[in-house]
Amino acid sequence: MIKIRFNQRIALKDFLKLYRQASFEQGKLNDSPKRLQSMLDHTQLMVTVWDDKNLVGLARCLTDYESSCYLSELVISTNYRGRGLGKRLLMALHAYLGGRVSIILRAAPKAVGFYQALGYQEIANLVRLYRED
């Protein structure tokens, strides 16, 4: 049975397994385990999707819970795509935060249409300073 959970701690091994299954690396599989664990420990809001005891999706967010929420990544296991889990996860995130909080993200070009179909608007003035290592 598929369940969505908020702020449930996940083991680093489960996080990495999901990234491998989703072919969603963004360089994270090359990071040190210490850095990745720190990233997980300091995530302010994590919404996860579970099939029984298996982590099959997640959204990692940084938020002030009043104005803005930056969705740093949305990951769904390849075996679970096409079932509406990404949409369910985003709807759960929006319901949890409420309408007063803007959700901001950087989407891969091929994912823009997915977000637009859910009411997200593309903006052109998002900027980024890349990390050094």
From TrEMBL:
Keywords: Acyltransferase, Transferase. It is an enzyme of class 2 (transferase). InterPro entries: Acetyltransferase_Butenolide, Acyl_CoA_acyltransferase, GNAT_dom. One of its GO terms (molecular function) is acyltransferase activity. PANTHER family: FAMILY N-ACETYLTRANSFERASE, PUTATIVE (AFU_ORTHOLOGUE AFUA_6G03350)-RELATED. It comes from the Bacteria. It comes from Lentilactobacillus raoultii. Residues 2-133 form the N-acetyltransferase domain. This is GNAT family N-acetyltransferase. Its EC number is 2.3.-.-. The keyword Transferase applies.
